[in-house]
Amino acid sequence: MQRYLIAFIVVIVPAITSIALAKPKVALTPIEGDSENEVADVVVEILAEHVKVVSPKETKRAMDKLDLSGELDNKDAKKLAAKLDADAVVQGKIVKKGKKKSLVLTTHVHGKSSEQTIAFKTTMSLKKSRDDIAAAVAGVEETEKPIEKPEKPVKPHKRIADGDGDGDGDGDGDGERKVRKRKGGDADDEPEKSTAHDLGHLRLDVDHAAADDRHVRAERAHRGRGLSVRGRHRRQGRRDGGPRVRR
């Protein structure tokens, strides 16, 4: 029993842990004003601790395919997220005011946007603002994808009224034979009907031949006694008082 319990724990616990550790997917656009991608590298490093990050390079390729550029609105960000199968889009830009610099991160989630501003001097000082950068994706959750059920194979309908047996409906081949068989078997019963008809005629011929044979035998028997059938009929008529028949 303990062996089965240990096996159950070994199998189930990692599965639950993997579900619990599932991270939402966030696409990060190229950061405006960051020509060397130094700021982008810092942002990717910090965000990767909380979400799955689509790199600015990959996001840029998707934007080019969608013909998107500049500052994105919620509608454009939604298209981009769908293209990358992401749960959110984070767009960044560097704003300079005198000697001060600020990183503005705009997060687009489900048609809504929020903004996070982080002041910094160098990339080293930006790394110290980990919590502020992570706050840009704090409200992002993994979108539940609908489970697509496999379609059941559709069985082809058998056509009875017409068809050639393959369902194309042109009325030749095996299809006609099937139709005739289902409507009463006319095509298949024709040989049987013709055979029965011939047998009937044959029986009639046999009956006629037997009758003729009986008649001939009777004629011969009466002739053997000296009278034909016709003479016997005449004699019988005289006895009954009928008129005489001239020969």
In brief, what are we looking at here?
With 247 residues, this protein is an alpha/beta fold.
Describe this structure in words.
With 247 residues, this protein is an alpha/beta fold. It folds into 2 domains: 22-137, Rossmann fold; 174-239. The chain has helices at 2-20, 38-47, 56-65, 74-84, 123-127, 130-134, 174-182, 186-224, 229-239, and strands at residues 25-28, 52-54, 88-97, 100-109, 112-120. Strands 2-1-3-4-5 form a 5-stranded mixed β-sheet. Strand 4 (100-109) and strand 5 form a beta hairpin. The longest helix is centred in the C-terminal third of the chain and has 39 residues, at 186-224. It starts with a helix and ends in an 8-residue tail after the last helix. Residues 15-20 have low confidence and may be disordered.
What's the helix and strand layout?
Layout: H1 2-20, E1 25-28, H2 38-47, E2 52-54, H3 56-65, H4 74-84, E3 88-97, E4 100-109, E5 112-120, H5 123-127, H6 130-134, H7 174-182, H8 186-224, H9 229-239
Parallel strand pairs: 1-2, 1-3
Antiparallel strand pairs: 3-4, 4-5
